[in-house]
Amino acid sequence: MASILAVDDSASMRKMVSFTLRAAGYDVEEAEDGVDALQKAQVRQFDCVVTDVNMPNKDGITLIRDLRALPQYKFIPMLMLTTESGMEKKMEGKAAGATGWMVKPFNPDQLLKTLLKVLG
Amino acid sequence: MSIDMSQFHQVFFEECFEGLEAMESGLLTLDVGDVDSEVINTIFRAAHSIKGGSGTFGFTVVAEYTHIMETLLDEMRDGRRQVTQPAVNVLLGSVDCLREMLASIQNEQDVDEVSVAQHKAALEAVLNGVVSEVVVPVAAPKVINEAPKVQVAAAEVTVQEDDDAGEQGWKISFCPYLDLLKTGNDPVRLFRELNELGELTATVNAQDVPKFYELDPEECNLSWDLKLVGNVSSDEIKEIFSWVEGDCELEIQPIAKPKVIKPAPVVEAVQADIEIDEPAQIVAAEPEIIAKPVIDTKKDPEADASKTAVKASSSIRVDTEKIDALINMVGEVVITQSMLGLVGENFTMDKVGQLKRGLAQLERHTRDLQQSVMNIRMLPISFVFSRFPRLVHDISSKLNKKITLKLVGENTEVDKAVVELINDPLVHLIRNSLDHGIEMPEERIAAGKPETGTIELKAYHRGGHIVIEIIDDGRGLNKDKLLAKALEKGLIDENIQLTEKQIYELIFMPGFSTAEQLTDISGRGVGMDVVRRNIQSLGGNIEIISELGKGTTIAIHLPLTLAILDGQSVAVGDEIYIVPLVSIVESINITEKMLNKVAGKGETFRLRGEYLPIIRMRGIFNVQSINKPKSTEGVIVVVEGQGALCGFLVDELLGQQQVVIKSLEANYRRVEGVSGATILGDGSVALILDVPGLVRLSVR
Question: Do B45 and A11 touch (CB under 8 A)?
């Protein structure tokens, strides 16, 4: 099953995401912020990255930009979880290399459905 | 899949309360004139997280509320809005409001909708307040921004009308730019999704693919003509392509009709309408909104005081370092155990030395392990202290006093249970210092003191205790006044000479209050006697040092943990009891003859000229002694409880040891005079004496 890196500074959101994905059979690793995630992503190769946008130390968009610059993450799907329904943040994320996004609030089913889109 | 979301609620609530605290301390440090963007950012992020989480976990009220806060903070963060003191005050009020909302939700109570609506209105008023000053420039671009959206929407409506007119399908021309793959998007995924909507036929155009030796495999050189048959709306298709918008050329047309009819004139008409309507609405709505904040902001500070009963959280966050230490210790124990196991196999007497060494090691490791486990429950006292800057800020402005709060030793660690229970007593003591201790600025200047008073909140470890001191540089306690008051209330006898310490202790007597009139700051019907009782119930004590005109220091001594206690074991008949070491003053060997019987008042012992009331442990616990006959010799353990000395008559003193407290209430029921039980080395149970409780019991 595909491996996913779930990044969120909020423990409750991170637990929710990782629990949902694990329950669906994915191999999930958690990271607390962009810095943590970037480091973990280089230790092992993930098939997909799901990240919150607004985080301390390194925000999600910067994380996506940094990951895309790594050859092993050039084509890996990366989803951002954002609370903003406006297009501005999404476009900023896209410019950084995000594959797509999910607007919070979302429920576990929506999350899995979206993930299926990119992981097939 | 159905997932029980409630399992994440506890973590969510904890996170929220932490976030609220961060917001609060951020708001308090926010200098209105010179805003630190990092501070604003932190506050914003906290609000943002609460909003995101509450939406996800289904707490819509909270999400809606934080959304307004977030909008306001976002504007402050971007510099679009100035940070003003009134705005900060409204935000502080909102923090309180949110805290109450979350507490209600956590305790499964109804949210106080009136209060929420009031705070919401105050927030919205601040939010809209600036718009009112610059109605035209702010409102106008907004409308223009919205205009293209309207156009799109209108276009879609017309297209859909075509759709409804019986057209069953779409022709999609999808021409990705070269870089499409570099966002992790895959055209195949898009087609798969389209195929779920209806019957998809895809034709690939490969004419742009370069010669093999010129081919860059990272680029997308293909384009597609797609035909989707089925009752599908254009919105559904657009949704699927939303992630690749801007990364491709996309044309979506109904199958039968060659081109979308452009409904330009209609759109313009709609646009015109909106441009007139919107600003008019904004202007009209203003007066109503502005009227509200005055009422709300004034009510805020007091709201938080009465409701503090939040369900004590049962989970705990632990530093990973502590867990590592624990794992390390367990490793050591396991090694020692296997070493001992080896010694035990084919044991011969010449291995005694090895066995002893092993046991000594095991003892050391067990002690370290105990230490590490206890450490997990330890939290920095800052969990309690962090609430006080706000309290001091609110109350001092209410009293028109100038006061700075100094926090010292915030990282001092103490058991979680102590942290939870010490808050209320501390709040009371700090309110007292604010209200009665620190003088008004004029009074201070007249007394030659700096205009701004200082309250220092200090925590440090001493022995097995944590000491918390509340030090103010206020007017100090007036001994004569205290004495006069106590006499007037009939709490003391006129003829008795009291030491300085005893006079200060009067404050803790039930029914004593020095304030000429009770104010709503400190006099809330809870006296210092309750504060002392609470602290004693935690196994601690409280003392006062004061100097008239210079200030007062209140020191609270508390055990570091409520799970382990330093005890003195005493023998009474066949039983063994544990007396908490903290309450023991001294112990004296006596014989029966040295006790004096006082008619109607029990027995006393003359200790250095003072009469010490005696409680016979055999009597009070009705101890049978079959194995040990009653002796005429005994030991008086002098203890301090309820502010007075008292002697417990026991048979003999045994050792001092650390005992693990087991709750009697949880396993049996509450017993007066006993605070808990423990299991001794030989497996028998010993009761732990509740000293103040026994003193109360004996008075009756």
Answer: no
